[in-house]
Amino acid sequence: MIEVAPSAATSTGRTPSGVPSSPWKHLGKDLPAGLVVFLVALPLCLGISLASGAPLLAGIIAGIVGGLVVSWVSNSPLSVSGPAAGLTSIVLASLQSLQSFQAVLAAVVIAGIIQVVLGVVKAGIVGMYFPTSVIRGMLAAIGLTLILKQIPHLVGADADYFEDMTFLQFDGQNTFSAIERAMRGIGAGSALVGLVSLGVLFLWDDVIAKRLRVLRLVPSALVVVLLSIGLNNLLDQAAPVLRIRPEHLVSLPNISSWQDFIGSFTQPDWTALQRPGFFVVAFTIAIVASLESLLSVKAVDKLDPHKRITPTNRELVAQGTGNIISGLLGGLPITAVIVRSSANINAGGQTRMAAFSHGILLLVSLLFLESILNQVPYSALAAVLLIVGYKLTKPALYITQWRLGWQQFLPFIITIVAILFTDLLKGVSIGLAVGIFYILKANYESAYFLSKPAAMQAGPIHLKLSEQVSFLNKASIVKVLDELPDDTQVLIDGSNSSFIDYDVLEAIENFRLAAPERGIQLELRAIPQVQVLGH
């Protein structure tokens, strides 16, 4: 794989095509976008910690490292890294097998080292083989999942953690049963705040900010958060019956000073390297985190208005570096995450400064903003994610894929359904299997061009091979050779082929050996002969 140098489209430097320049020149857009990402990331980091069975601070540490470290080591201008819902079950299982969180931290560090090695040996090329139809299906599925998962939070009827993205939830519910249960237990205060927040988000950019230019600099998500705090306090005083319950508010750990923060770090237990299964855990975290990161940056590149391309090998090095530091400081494993990255793009982020500033805000929030942020209702943040989800799964996307034909539409829609009813990696794997089927089918049909002489005219049946003939083409070539009529002239022409796989050459040689028995007069043109076993 050829990776573009940092000065080209993969960087944040301005190019003639209008790609944003130095990150310092776009703070007017990046800082508000970073604020939006921070507001979305904060409950996600806390929720993933709870779901993973880890200390509450572990998710925040991972988010801080993802913002402050990975954003600069990576060459992705828009991707945001942090703890991911896809790793919660792995961390839970790792806690059971290694018997302590400190041992899991050691595994996270080793996983990071493995990722760095994968990047150095250029294993990131795997990311180039995800079909566009599958990536678009993944984005649409994440959008639908966000919408479905945030409805219970919007109406204040879900105490489940905030980024539970799998179909089967930890509380025994599934995506649809959770919505059904939520409709029977709506929290009036949360629902009021959520619906008002949703209305503001719909109107802010297209109506309110257009009429008052000065408001265009204010992110709609910030307006919603401040408004939700005000509404929450108003309800508390004016209508206590509508008071939002504590479990439906952001809940930051109590850290009153920098010393408390430093003292709360957990150190890895290096004696765990001797425990059975330790390296299995480390490799599992490394592989799953790498695949999820490669999928995420590929999806972010699709969403990037400037169509910049992230170097995948460098991304593996960046994620590995982040996991090494996160593990050493007591944080959860890190990946590039599509939900926060999508929020960044929708908020107008231009360069890596948006992700970096979200990391700074996570750090500052722990030290100074606990009392304010603990008043933010989840329903307001759910409204923000509902808008993000809608933008990922707009009806126009489905129409576009339908018009491209079944070869693009079927992997797209199957990926969506598979992710909705399983999880991200399983769903993408199913979508990839369908996509590979169509790739094989296309190879089956495009390996050659067959022309036959017109009736009553002399001349051979001409089988002209394509430029690249791989082992994937063997089945179609064997089939056409078997179906050639006996007692004819046949010309197999490889003069335009720059590569013919050995398996195909062996099939042609088998046909050459059998041709006299069928009365076929065979001519081979630019076809190398190979030794066939038994001859």
Automatic annotation (TrEMBL):
What organism is this sequence from?
Hymenobacter endophyticus
Compartments in which it is found: Membrane
Give the main location: membrane
Q: What is the lineage of its organism?
A: Bacteria, Pseudomonadati, Bacteroidota, Cytophagia, Cytophagales
**UniProt biased composition (Polar residues):** 8-20
What is the name attached to this protein's record?
Answer: SulP family inorganic anion transporter
Entry's PROSITE patterns? STAS (PS50801)
Q: How is it placed in the membrane, per its record?
A: Multi-pass membrane protein
Q: Where is the signal peptide?
A: none
User: Keywords on this record?
Assistant: Membrane, Transmembrane, Transmembrane helix
Chain intervals for the UniProt region annotation (Disordered): 1-23
Which InterPro entries does the protein's record reference? SLC26A/SulP_dom, SLC26A/SulP_fam, STAS_dom
Q: Give the stretches traversing the membrane.
A: 31-49, 56-74, 101-121, 128-148, 186-204, 216-235, 277-295, 316-339, 351-369, 376-392, 412-440
Q: What positions does the domain STAS occupy?
A: 450-535
